[in-house]
Amino acid sequence: GTWTNAENMNVARAGHTASTLANGYVLVTGGVKNNAALNSAELYNPATGTWTTTRNMNVARAAHTASRLADEYLLVAGGWDGSAALNSAELYSSATGTWTITGNMNVARYHHTTTTLANGLVLVTGGFHIDVGILNSAELYNPLTGTWTTTGKMNTARSYHTASILGNGYVLVAGGRDGSAELYNPSTGTWTTTGYMNTARYYHTASTLASGYVLAAGGWDGSAELYNPSTGTWIITANMTAGR
């Protein structure tokens, strides 16, 4: 495969999110520029290869998460506003291009994860709070009520970790502090530990493959490994060509 240049975004940003919407557009939200958190958002049109601005978020945020819900909405949650962790959340409608404030999380956090579960709830895990440090707490967002409820705490506090949904509906959380990993059972709201990664990682990526395996890559060096949900173990695979 090859790469081709696309049109530049309207605003340079880091620590932002990028999400594919129901209409096929890609929504980029927030981030940081010149040490200031951004509330701006823009849309990429794959058909034309161009970016257009859309409505600003209600709150400037970076190191937040964005999760697509079952309908046209996208949930943005938490993050950092330049001085403090955020517990606020808001919804973007791809149909109207507008933002609506929704319920606050119970715990302010950034560098966390969010995962949309098969039952439509959104699971938020871990992250960082400047007064508390690395978090092991988790909570669930209910799109029908716009509210958050706490669920079972992880066995290990984590930030800069990954969360991947498996074929059986469980969520695999990995790394962020060491090589540990654990599984969330949506039916019981509990966590169980699973096999350690071969390499401790943070700020890495984890992708669920068509085979059901999860590929974890980078975060410390160019190494990569595969998680086998059937055995709960990690298998080393080929290194990337560059550490990232």
Automatic annotation (TrEMBL):
The keyword Acetylation does not apply. Keywords: Kelch repeat, Repeat. It comes from the Eukaryota. Gene3D superfamilies: Galactose oxidase/kelch, beta-propeller (2.130.10.80), Kelch-type beta propeller (2.120.10.80). InterPro entries: Gal_Oxidase_central_sf, Kelch-typ_b-propeller, Kelch_1. This is Galactose oxidase. It comes from Adineta steineri.
